[in-house]
Amino acid sequence: MEEDYQQAVAQAQAERAAEMQRRAMLKQVLDGAAFERMTRIRMSNPELYLKIFKLLIYLYQNGQLKATVGEEELKALAAKLVEKKHEPSITRLQK
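Now predict its structure.
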């Protein structure tokens, strides 16, 4: 029981440290408004947040980002990454 608790605490600390590191990286890449939008994305859609983070860091490390990313550019990136869900359509057959 004690070991499970210690493992859970260690895992929580590791996750917190990783998130702090992600935030520090994002502050270098994003301007203020874009950073705030990323925090809102993190709360509402953690999977999308991680996708955007990985893409931004990849672009940054490869020198493809010339300046900090603004909010409009971030919205465009997010729109490209969001999967378009196909709405099923129901058609009625007339007899």
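Helices lie at 2-29, 32-44, 46-61, 71-81.
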